[in-house]
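The records we work with from here on pair a chain with its fold. Taken together, the tokens spell out the fold as the letters spell out the chain. The record below shows the convention in full.
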Amino acid sequence: MQIMQLAAMNDPVPAPPGASSPTGDSGGGPRLFIERVEALAAVIDLDIPPQYLAGVAENLERLLAQAKLIGDVELPPGSDAAPVFRP
């Protein structure tokens, strides 16, 4: 399974009582992202110490939320990348 597919999984995982995600919603909660981080780490053979797992999961959730904002922007037809960047 591709890393991005694992990061984008939407399997509902119930949050522990009283838990909420860093973005303020309680749909899935931190446990969902901890499981995603564990799966991603296993794919790339990365050892994440348990004391850092929650922080890594919070950062992944924030990054995915920010990437979604950018990915949801619709460009007008005919928008192509410039062949050369000139500041």
DSSP finds three helices and no strands in the chain. The helical segments are 3-7, 29-43, 50-71.
